[in-house]
Specification:
Layout lengths: L7 H91 L4 E5 L20 E4 L2 E4 H13 L2 E4 L10 H14 L17 E7 L7 H9 L6 E8 L7 H8 L4 E9 L7 H10 L3
Parallel strand pairs: 1-4, 1-5, 5-6, 6-7
Antiparallel strand pairs: 2-3
Helix pairs in contact: 2-6
Length: 282
């Protein structure tokens, strides 16, 4: 039997169609397998910039807020310093206005250093006066007149331990203190003594000497460069050597003898005391 031969044109067309189909199948297969690989490879690369941007944004946010917080803290600190400076300045001004005089009248008296009863009378001691304000020592009264005449301020020398209310007991204790050179402890000064240039020192003459609390006061203060005016009350001894003793204790001060006033005649000496102050101003 003879085989039937196809025309050559038909064969060529069939071959071309088969080759085209194979090529399309291979291309389609290659594209499908590449897609997962590209997705896996690209996924981290796509996330990294996002994380980096978030980090940069966070850092930028932190960096941008830091100067504001620092500036705010700096402003608050400067404000606090300014407030402290203003307070200190106000305190300084108040302190300056509180002390308007350069003169201080320092005095020692039994009154103020003794726990007297309310019924105490002038018979308890010649150094005590009684008026509408209660008991006042002679030294305290003289100090008040001096302060008024000089425009100065007053400060009392106060002992930690008070003296007995009984006059004779006080005499006994004071003599014992003097015999052994005992310096009683004093309460803190009410004034800054060293800030004054003129000092009036008023005290009673006890057995020809300073009361021992006055020694304590002079031991505690260097009065160099100051003028010290001495006033004493007495019952016949006058100044004794009190002025010389103060000169020895305060060699850098100009010590001047004021007035020695007899205790029983203090009330009659007001004008003389005021006059001495007026006549002997620095």
């Amino acid at each position: 039997m003879k085989k039937k031969l196809l025309p050559m044109g038909v064969v060529l067309v069939s071959l071309l169609l088969g080759l085209t189909a194979c090529g399309n199948s291979s291309a389609a297969s290659g594209q499908d397998s590449a897609t997962p690989q590209e997705t896996v490879a690209e996924a981290p690369e796509a996330e990294a910039p996002d994380e980096g941007e978030k980090t940069e944004e966070t850092e930028e946010t932190t960096d941008s807020s830091a100067p504001e917080e620092t500036a705010q803290a700096s402003t608050e600190q400067e404000s606090a310093v300014a407030d402290n400076d203003a307070t200190a300045a106000a305190a300084s001004e108040d302190g300056g206005s509180a002390r308007q005089s350069d003169t201080l009248v320092v005095y020692f008296s039994r009154v103020g250093n003794t726990d007297f009863q309310e019924t105490v009378d002038a018979d308890s001691s010649a150094s005590i006066r009684i008026d509408e304000n209660g008991p006042m020592g002679n030294a305290g009264q003289i100090a008040a007149w001096i302060a008024d005449a000089s425009g100065g301020e007053t400060m009392e020398i106060l002992t930690e331990e008070t003296y007995p209310a009984d006059y004779n007991e006080t005499v006994s204790q004071a003599k014992q203190e003097q015999s052994v050179g005992f310096r009683p402890l004093l309460k803190a000064d009410e004034k800054a003594v060293e800030e004054y240039s003129t000092i009036y020192l008023v005290f009673p003459n006890w057995w020809g000497d300073l009361p021992m609390p006055v020694y304590s006061f002079l031991d505690a203060h260097d009065l160099t460069g100051k003028t010290v005016n001495v006033f004493v009350t007495h019952e016949g001894s006058g100044f004794s050597n009190t002025v010389g003793t103060i000169e020895e204790l305060e060699p850098g001060a100009e010590v001047r003898q004021g007035l020695a006033v007899q205790g029983g005649s203090v009330t009659d000496e007001e004008q003389n005391i005021r006059q001495w102050v007026n006549d002997n101003r620095n």
